[in-house]
Amino acid sequence: MKTYLPVLLVLAASPVRAESSLPVTDHAHHQAARAETATTTGVIRKINTAQGTLTIAHEAVPALGWPAMVMPFRASAGQMAAVRVGERVRFEFTHQGMATLVRIDPAD
Ligand SMILES: [Cu+2]
Q1: Distance 68 CA to ligand 1 centre (A)
Q2: CATH level 3 topology of 33-106
Q3: What is the domain partition of the chain in residue ranges?
Q4: Is 52 left (phi over 0), alpha (psi -120 to 50) or beta?
Q5: Would you state the torsion angle of the CA atoms of residues 7, 11, 14, 15, taken in this order, to the nearest 10 degrees?
Q6: 42 CB contacts (<8 Å, ≥6 apart)?
Q7: 29 C-alpha to center of ligand 1: Å?
Q8: Which of 22, 23, 69, 87 has the most CB atoms around its CB within 10 Å?
Q9: What is the CA(55)–ligand 1 centre distance, in A?
Q10: pTM score, two decimals?
Q11: From the CA of 2, how far away is ligand 1's center (Å)?
């Protein structure tokens, strides 16, 4: 027991030291973290090049607790040019703030 105790103390102390080295006065470390993404399928309903959005009737996203719905996703000019209204697509998106497409491909 005596030989294990110092090891346990070091292990218990390590997370505390790591945590205290993070900046706690701002949220810079949150912005630096990799954005979480989710993937689902849907049908393109509208391509709005002026607003930079694709409106997609998407299926449920269980990972986010989202039901099926119609909503806009921020999209690049290249992404908007690569799809047609009525096309079934599979797409990956970030969902912090406005949902933004990471990638979009034909679903079939
Ligand atoms: Cu939605």
Answers
A1: 6
A2: OB fold (Dihydrolipoamide Acetyltransferase, E2P) (2.40.50)
A3: 33-106
A4: left
A5: -170
A6: 56, 57, 58, 59, 88, 89, 91
A7: 27
A8: 87
A9: 10
A10: 0.69
A11: 57
